[in-house]
């Protein structure tokens, strides 16, 4: 397939995944901030939402203060924030338009309808919490529909695999960022571990990756930081864990390698990361430092993006 | 101006045979049901994203072309005449183009004046003596036809460069079949859906000799911001070929390749929807980023087929148009089946004098214009507009032709105040391959939605209709 087509598919999937992730982040943050102050301590949840989204620096160029109104607006609707939900959907739609021939009509319909609704209904942002909740649901449903229609209607060929690469790379990045920021914020206060404050913080992390119920099924325990980390980093059965994302990345890259009759640096690099995840346990990771481990992962993960781009997309 | 020919009703109250079933159906169908279907059609068009971009329109970059749910119907017999005339005309167009860029018999015979060719900006000296694969220049022609009475179809314009609209022909039919299955069950409508197959086999048939095995065909688009981008992606999809932009292609050793995830892949035939001027910055406009550097040398080396060929603009020029009947006679020795509109060539002093005297009854068009831009419709124009045009004409008479305002036929059309006659034209698409010329039965009917308006162009607010050729 055309390199440009593969590139567009790859980015299309990333944008949709990112939009959903932002919606989840906002949703989780709203939940925590709705709690009485005694449960959440002194941390500014809106600041940490900006940090996980990786847009804190650019935010403060426009705004003085990270509060609900400003952050929701910046993450959801701002035209100035290149990865706001609005811009993600718009970019996804533009990418879809230029690769329509590679999309199934169901996928196109999902993106195009979302884009139409974005303009028709959400053009002015949201004014009430209720409105915002509706908007966030709309974003998550768009992502679900898109993912579902891709899964159900696409031929299992390189077009599918490249779009999956984008999805899993983005997802791995998002999960890693959530963990990193939360650990960063929470760890200095280790004496509180296990208190009500932590409980709500950790449950908000799990909620933001839609894994709260999963946690209970897997561990049958109260929320514990190292188990949350274990779930999000090493547990291959959780679709958003780093391990699961890398199982998928390795598989999709292998499928491309087999179809093209050639393996390359992308396959080797992805396998390297997966092997490291496979041979780690939480003890080692804590010894090494969770923050350091995740930072290295984020770097490695974005390096994979660069290698894929060089090998296939340009 | 004569009374327009009504395609449905014979004066005196009778119906034309082709419309009888439709008329019966319309009588049974309440207006609300029609309106409901109209809205549903619009929703479908918007969701599928069948849009076109309007240049210079800041409000929205993509618009729907209004779609009218009442089909335009033609009998198989009428179509038979049209089909014969279209094939004849396109054959002559191809022979004319080959001649213009090679022997120039027609110029030496004094049929077409030399300066009309050589001083024409769309004439491409680069194509002089250049062999094009299989001698086909116009692989895809869109011929604009109007009907003025029960017997006569008249050619309004030959589009021999990159005619668009065929996606609307196909999508209009799809949507009609979805919304009006019962209406189809009552008619035998000749299908148009094989157009993409016919196009692909025509394109494959003209591959250069150096193509190995199954030729690779690609569609070259200027990109998502082009007004016809929807059509480009639609066609590439239906044909199962890559939709490429200039940046996806690269020329090496006079061969054209596309950049793929598996490395470079040779391309043999390009259905290009990019104008001559932008095809190759090394040959044409150096500032163009849409094209492919070196494409023209690959073309000259015979390693790529461009459809349509470079330089075909000379055949759809409005000044050349007036010579088409002579061109048909010259190459084929036959009388043209399809008539031309009477045309005054303002470059000829006698004609100019007539035109200047009759501006308020004529349509004056720029020789190189398209899309309904820059024309004067005398009967509908204000005095000031006419005077301004008079000055333009005097300044640059060779830039214009004039034609009588035709009474384009009308078809019943949904309007705010119910069904009403509106003027229509028709653009059938003629495909020429190495051995055969084919036309799917039908074409794109364009309709002027404003009462009395004769302007059917989408860029000027016109709409479209499904065109039914009855299989008898």
Automatic annotation (TrEMBL), chain A:
It holds the Pfam family Alpha-E. It comes from the Bacteria. Residues 1-313 form the DUF403 domain. InterPro entries: ATP-dep_Glu-Cys_Ligase-2, DUF403. This is Alpha-E domain-containing protein. It comes from Bradyrhizobium amphicarpaeae. The lineage of its organism: Bacteria, Pseudomonadati, Pseudomonadota, Alphaproteobacteria, Hyphomicrobiales.
TrEMBL record, chain B:
Residues 71-448 form the Circularly permuted ATP-grasp type domain. SUPFAM superfamilies: Glutathione synthetase ATP-binding domain-like (SSF56059). It comes from the Bacteria. Pfam families: CP_ATPgrasp_2. PANTHER family: BLR5612 PROTEIN, SLL1039 PROTEIN. This is Circularly permuted type 2 ATP-grasp protein. It comes from Bradyrhizobium amphicarpaeae.
């Amino acid at each position: 397939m055309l390199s440009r087509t593969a590139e567009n598919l790859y980015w299309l999937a990333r944008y949709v995944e990112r939009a959903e992730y932002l919606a989840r982040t906002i949703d989780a943050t709203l939940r925590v901030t709705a709690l009485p102050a005694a449960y959440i301590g002194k941390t500014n949840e809106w600041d940490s939402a900006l940090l996980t989204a990786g847009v804190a620096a650019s935010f403060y160029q426009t705004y003085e203060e990270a509060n609900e109104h400003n952050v929701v607006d910046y993450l959801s609707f701002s035209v100035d924030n290149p990865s706001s939900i609005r811009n993600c959907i718009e970019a996804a739609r533009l990418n879809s338009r230029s690769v329509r021939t590679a999309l199934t009509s169901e996928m196109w319909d999902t993106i195009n309808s979302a884009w139409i609704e974005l303009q028709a209904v959400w053009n002015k942002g949201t004014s009430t919490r209720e409105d915002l909740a509706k908007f966030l649901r709309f974003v998550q449903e768009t992502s679900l529909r898109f993912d579902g229609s891709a899964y159900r209607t696409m031929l299992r060929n390189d077009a599918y695999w490249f779009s999956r690469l984008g999805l899993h790379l983005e997802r791995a990045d998002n999960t890693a960022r959530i963990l990193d920021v939360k650990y960063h914020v929470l760890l200095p206060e280790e004496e509180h571990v296990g208190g009500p404050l932590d409980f709500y913080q950790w449950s908000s992390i799990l909620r933001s990756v839609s894994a709260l119920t999963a946690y209970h099924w897997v561990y049958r325990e109260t929320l514990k930081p190292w188990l949350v980390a274990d779930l999000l980093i090493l547990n291959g059965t959780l679709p958003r864990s780093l391990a699961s994302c890398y199982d998928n990345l390795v598989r999709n890259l292998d499928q491309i390698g087999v179809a093209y009759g050639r393996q390359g640096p992308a396959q080797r690099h992805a396998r390297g990361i997966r092997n490291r995840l496979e041979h780690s346990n939480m003890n080692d990771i804590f010894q090494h430092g969770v923050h350091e481990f995740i930072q290295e992962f984020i770097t490695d993960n974005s390096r994979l993006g660069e290698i894929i781009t060089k090998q296939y997309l340009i | 101006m004569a009374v327009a020919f009504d395609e449905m009703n014979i004066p005196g109250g009778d119906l034309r045979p082709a419309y009888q079933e439709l008329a019966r159906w319309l009588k049974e169908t309440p207006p609300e049901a029609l309106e409901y279907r109209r809205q549903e059609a619009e929703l479908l068009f918007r969701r599928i994203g069948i849009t076109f971009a309007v240049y210079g329109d800041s409000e929205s970059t993509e618009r729907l072309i209004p779609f009218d749910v009442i089909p335009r119907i033609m009998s198989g017999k009428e179509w038979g005449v049209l089909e014969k005339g279209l094939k004849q005309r396109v054959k002559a167009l191809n022979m004319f183009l080959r001649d213009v860029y090679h022997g120039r018999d027609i110029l030496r015979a004094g049929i077409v004046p030399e300066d009309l060719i050589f001083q024409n900006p769309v004439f491409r000296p680069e194509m002089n003596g250049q062999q094009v694969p299989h001698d086909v220049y116009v692989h895809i022609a869109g011929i604009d036809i109007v009907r003025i009475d029960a017997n006569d179809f008249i050619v309004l314009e030959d589009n021999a460069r990159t005619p668009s609209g065929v996606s609307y022909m196909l999508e209009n039919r799809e949507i009609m079949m979805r919304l009006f299955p019962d209406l189809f069950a009552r008619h035998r409508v000749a299908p148009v859906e094989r157009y993409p197959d016919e196009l692909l086999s025509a394109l494959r048939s003209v591959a250069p000799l150096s193509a190995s095995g199954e030729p690779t065909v690609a569609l070259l688009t200027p990109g998502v911001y082009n007004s016809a981008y929807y059509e480009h992606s639609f066609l590439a999809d239906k044909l199962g070929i890559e939709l490429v932009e200039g940046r996806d292609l690269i020329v090496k050793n006079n061969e054209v390749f596309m950049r793929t995830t598996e490395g470079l892949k040779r391309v043999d035939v390009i259905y290009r929807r990019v104008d001559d001027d932008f095809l190759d910055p090394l040959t044409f406009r150096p500032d163009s980023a849409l094209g492919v550097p070196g494409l023209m040398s690959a073309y000259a080396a015979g390693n790529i087929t461009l459809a349509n060929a470079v330089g075909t603009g000379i055949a759809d020029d409005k000044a050349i148009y007036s010579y088409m009947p002579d061109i048909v006679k010259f190459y084929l020795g036959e009388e043209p089946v399809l008539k031309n509109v009477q045309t005054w060539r303002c470059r000829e002093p006698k004609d100019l004098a007539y035109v200047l005297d009759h501006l308020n009854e004529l349509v004056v068009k720029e020789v190189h214009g398209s899309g309904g831009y820059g024309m004067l419709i005398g009967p509908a124009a204000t005095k000031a507009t006419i005077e301004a045009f008079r000055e333009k004409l005097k300044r640059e008479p060779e830039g214009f032709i004039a034609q009588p305002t035709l009474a384009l036929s009308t078809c019943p059309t949904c309007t705010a105040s119910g069904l009403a006659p509106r003027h229509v034209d028709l653009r059938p698409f003629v495909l020429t391959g190495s051995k055969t010329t084919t036309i799917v039965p039908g074409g794109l009917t364009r309709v002027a939605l404003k009462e009395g308006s004769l302007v059917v162009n989408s860029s000027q607010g016109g709409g479209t209709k499904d065109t039914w050729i009855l299989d008898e």
